[in-house]
């Protein structure tokens, strides 16, 4: 016989004995037939979480919390507690879980795309490349770098998911290409937990770009990758509870939601309730972050406000306090639930542009501008002074490009990005700069992200008037620029009248 490590000594109770116990403790169970049907359908233990708040508190001066700080409840029920009401709470919670699961799946599917797409742009097997993920560490001086423990643990868990996957598209990939899946397919076979952990393994800049895309920002305007990682973990936790038929009503969740850093400088922000500790481990906090994320995934959908309306209505029909779900007073006045409320679309567009073109941050761009000329080159300088002079010259050169509007700039949060194809040999490509300047001049008054989108459209769209590749494939101006000398490029673009195909975006 297996040796048991447990001090549990409560006796087994038959259903009639369970009904007697509930009645003895003050619960109205109606008829034996009704109570039997309920307990056989749901189970005594499952329902106990729903009648727990109706157990009486100790009368003063008896303590109401134990040595661990947990609330003490007596076995007896407050007057008028009924099994029918407990079942109504359970049925409401079941409907809540179903609706919540549907909304979570919408967010989860979108996150699978964004994470897979971001990584896939750099390496189709990025999840199997710890170098690309920047998860290599040198354990001891002189040792060769090796993958971190967190990456190895993640890969082991992911491999279990990939091995078990039997969907038709997975079988097709295995048969045609081999056992391992590219990242944009791999994200479809990961659990939400494995997906959210992959986010934390992405290069820091990629994490920040995704966080900024969802307008989860730090106080200084960068993407708050820590807050977004916490949000994903919170949603994973709630999703798992729903998947295993756990209780959502009157529950304090294990994952406490982090408030993004920018809330510290904007007390009127629509997520300001996340600064309230009574909200951050309750359903209201989860609904807040779901609404925020959905507004940047599907801005026209009203699913979360509709769910709040359902909860509000059921609180009156079933009879429970919205505070049990973390709803604060005057929650209906929160701007985020207004029918006209929307998020700024520019960060979403900017992040999409960064997925289209390999880009450098302002710091990285300045570092590439090795052709920048320092002031007073003959002046005697120490090595640190010379380094500072070079940095100053590079900063000034980028400012000059921006002043004369010859470079495509993509702003996301307070971080500026510059498509890398614009630079060669330590400076901007002159032929490209001339075209950019002409095209940008046509976009006077157009928002900068829209202008950047229009410029990328022109540079990246195959043009029928340009020479084709050896296999007959149409080339875009950017493709052509990468393969022929600048002078030939300028002539070819002029002969094809390609600049006149530029489409000036409409102002919003």
Q: Identify the overall geometry.
A: elongated
Low-confidence stretches: none
Helix content class: 40-55%
Order of helices and strands: HHHHHEEHHHHHHHHHEHHEEEEHHHH
The neighbouring-strand order within the major sheet is 3-5-4
Walk me through what this model shows.
With 508 residues, the chain is mainly alpha-helical. The protein folds into 3 domains: 15-81, no CATH class; 93-138 and 145-331, no CATH class; 354-501, no CATH class. 50% of the residues lie in helices and 4% in strands. It contains 20 helices and 7 strands. It has helices at residues 15-24, 32-42, 44-51, 83-120, 130-133, 149-164, 168-177, 183-189, 192-201, 204-213, 225-243, 283-297, 303-319, 346-356, 362-368, 383-403, 430-441, 448-460, 477-481, 486-495, and strands at 136-137, 146-147, 359-361, 410-412, 415-419, 423-424, 427-428. Helix 4 crosses helix 11 (225-243), helix 10 (204-213) packs antiparallel against helix 14 and helix 15 packs across helix 16 (383-403). The longest helix is centred in the first third of the chain and has 38 residues, at 83-120. The mean pLDDT is 93.
Task: Annotate the secondary structure layout.
Layout: H1 15-24, H2 32-42, H3 44-51, H4 83-120, H5 130-133, E1 136-137, E2 146-147, H6 149-164, H7 168-177, H8 183-189, H9 192-201, H10 204-213, H11 225-243, H12 283-297, H13 303-319, H14 346-356, E3 359-361, H15 362-368, H16 383-403, E4 410-412, E5 415-419, E6 423-424, E7 427-428, H17 430-441, H18 448-460, H19 477-481, H20 486-495
